[in-house]
Amino acid sequence: MSEAENSKIGVLVMSYGTPESLDDVEAYYTHIRRGHPPTPEQLTDLYGRYEAIVGGVFPLRENTNGQVAGLQDKLEQLAPGRYACYQGLKHARPYIEDGVEQMARDGIKQAVGIVLAPHYSTMSVGSYIKRAEEKASELGVEMTFVKQYHLHPKLLKALTERVTDGLARLSASSGGETRVKVLFSAHSLPEKIRELGDPYEEQLLETSRAVAKQAGIADDVWQFTWQSAGRTREPWLGPDILETLAELAEQGVKAVLAAPIGFVSDHLEVLFDLDIEAKTTAKNMGITLERIKMLNRDPLYMETLAESVIEAT
C-alpha cells in the first residue's frame, strides 16, 4: 500500500446485521442469543416471518451494503481520497471485529466508527462501540466514534419529507379521514435502561418533536410508541404499537401513519412487525394504517452520515 493510501482515515460503518438466506437464520439467532439456539417453535416462527416478507430474499443485507457504498460515494465527493469505508456487523459476518481487522491489514492507523442508528443507547450503539474499541486497541488503530446524530438537520429534513408524503398517502387511502394519528416508533429495549439514565428514550422524543414541528403536526395528533420488544422475562419499554392501536381505536381514530424513526432501513421490524402485523391489527379494528418510506440510501441520510463522520475527525 502506498503512503497516500496508508494515510486514509478508516470509517467503520456498523449495523445489526441480518441473515443472508433462510439457511442462515438459525445461526444468526443463535448468535443474538449468545450461543443459545432458538427453540424449534421459535425457529418455525422466525422462518414464517422471513418467508412472509421476503420469500427467502433478504433486503436488509443489500440495503446495508448500499448504505455503506452510498456513504463512501458521499465522502469521496466531500473529501476526495481521504476516507475508506469498512463494514462491521453485530450479529453477522463481517463482524465488527472483522471490519477493524481489515482496516488494520490495510494499514489504517486512524479511524472513526458510526452506527446505522441515529439514537444512542448503552445497550445498542454503546455495545457496538465497545466491541470496536476493544479490537482497535488490540490492533493499534486509533478510533473515535459518532455516538448519535438524531438531531442532524438533514436527517430531520429527510424524515419530515417522509412524514408529509405518508400523510398524503394516508389521506388518499383512508378517503380523506380526519381522525388521524401519527405514531413515531423505535425498537423497544429492556426497561432497566431508565434506571441507568440512558439517553435513548429522550433522544427518540427529541427527534419526534422536531419532525412533528417541521411537518406542522399538532401535539395532539402525534404520539410515541414502541415496537419489536424482545421475548424475554424482563420487562421491556412500552406500550407496544399493537396496544397503542387498540387504544386509538377506542378513541375513534380511523387513520394512522406509522413513522418508525428509530430505524433507517427496510428490515424485519418494519416489513413484518409494521407492514404485516400492525397493518393487519389496524384493519381488524377499522383503522387504515400507512407507513413512512424508510431512509435506506436517501441522499439526505448519506449526507447526514458523511457530515457526522467528517465532524468527528
Describe this structure in words.
The structure is a single chain. The protein has 313 residues and is of the alpha/beta class. Helix content is 47%, strand content 15%. The protein has helices spanning 3-6, 25-32, 40-54, 59-78, 96-105, 125-139, 153-173, 200-214, 241-250, 268-271, 273-284, 299-312, and strands at 9-15, 83-89, 110-115, 142-146, 180-187, 222-227, 255-259, 288-291. Helix 6 links the parallel strand 3 (110-115) and strand 4. It catalyses: Fe-coproporphyrin III + 2 H(+) = coproporphyrin III + Fe(2+). Fe-coproporphyrin III binds at residues 16, 33, 49-50, 128.
What's the arrangement of secondary structure elements?
Layout: H1 3-6, E1 9-15, H2 25-32, H3 40-54, H4 59-78, E2 83-89, H5 96-105, E3 110-115, H6 125-139, E4 142-146, H7 153-173, E5 180-187, H8 200-214, E6 222-227, H9 241-250, E7 255-259, H10 268-271, H11 273-284, E8 288-291, H12 299-312
Parallel strand pairs: 1-2, 1-3, 3-4, 5-6, 5-7, 7-8
Helix pairs in contact: 4-12, 5-6, 7-8, 7-12, 9-11
Give a short synopsis of this structure:
The chain is of the alpha/beta class and 313 residues long. Helices cover 47% and strands 15% of the residues.
Question: Main traits of this protein?
Answer:
2 domains, 313 residues, cytoplasm, 8 strands, metal-binding, four-stranded parallel beta sheet, alpha/beta, 12 helices, Rossmann fold, single chain
Per DSSP E runs of 2 or more residues, the count of β-strands stands at: 8
Look at the structure and give the mean pLDDT: 94
Low-confidence stretches: 1-5
Shape: globular
How much beta, percentage-wise?
Answer: 15-25%
Element pattern in H and E = HEHHHEHEHEHEHEHEHHEH
Helix content bin:
40-55%
- Kindly give the count of domains: 2
CATH class of the largest domain: Alpha Beta
